[in-house]
What we know:
This is Tripartite tricarboxylate transporter substrate binding protein. It comes from Saccharopolyspora griseoalba. The chain is α/β, with parallel strands linked by helices and 326 residues long. The chain is 44% helix and 20% strand. It folds into 2 domains: 3-134 and 259-324, 3-Layer(aba) Sandwich (D-Maltodextrin-Binding Protein, domain 2), CATH 3.40.190; 137-231, Periplasmic binding protein-like II (D-Maltodextrin-Binding Protein, domain 2), CATH 3.40.190.10. The chain has 11 helices and 11 strands.
Amino acid sequence: MRRSRATAAAAGALAVALAAGCASGSAGESAAGTGGPRPVGPVTMVVPFAAGGGSDIAGRAVADGLASVTPGLRVDVDNREGGQGAVGYSYLLGKRGSPNFLLATETSLLAIPAAVEVPFSHRDYTPIMKLGHDYTLLVTRPDSPITSCAQAAEASRQRRVLAGISGAMGPDAVVFDQLNREAGARIDTVPYQGGGETMAAVLGGQVELASLNPSEVIGQLRAGELKALCVFADQRYTYPELADVPTSVEQGVPVVFAQFRGVIAPGGLNPRARRYWIDAARRFAGSPAYRDYIASEYLQPRPAFGEDFADYLAAARTDIEQVVSR
Length: 326
């Protein structure tokens, strides 16, 4: 399946899911704390994906971490999956001005508006904190003749090579598009619902390659069920389990791409509410809870707050639009 066809199909499903998300968002307009200078009562951390994935893990870690450094604060997690994240973002759109809502965000915030027409962009929200970067690994089965990123590109020019991706419009699609453009590869992609399905497809031999986050595949790498060909980064990971994985750049493949993970709030916040959340995020970034989360998910710590996070989003949007909107 070519990515262009998959994107068109995903757009149709996205429209249906998006309508539901917008409806639920507008219904919640009367949420507690709307327009105030700080949250009143329990806060909701919206996770725009199902429980158990990277975004859910991030959302729960931040929810607990913020509460641990802010006396009296309670943050509950609400999974609102659908539309490859669009349902959750649309729900938050309906909470404009309320300091009682946060959302665990990642690259879908930029990729969805670049790929299909939706009523939101990153500018409609208040950037609070970028947690770090999640550089993906190119993986395959141990019995694959491919042993490096460069060899994967070469093999795809000689025969058909299939790669599994998580969603037709997400970071994995960006990585393989860059690999095709920058390294002359001809890899075809097959979209799955998430990292778990993608990994199952590689293990089962339905596809030969996948671009997966370290936390998703570390168990399979340890067990020898998968082998890592490279990490799409310009520097190696320093974690002992990943230190021996070469970078794409080392192998002569100029593809570097990181999925970011972060936290946003609704747009239109009272300036005092915005400062409240940024201050809380800075305290979280200096806490053991933040360090534990980064280490447990094998992230590269790259915290940024407020306007610095907004600047990062603006720059990353340009890069993603060049790929996803094709």
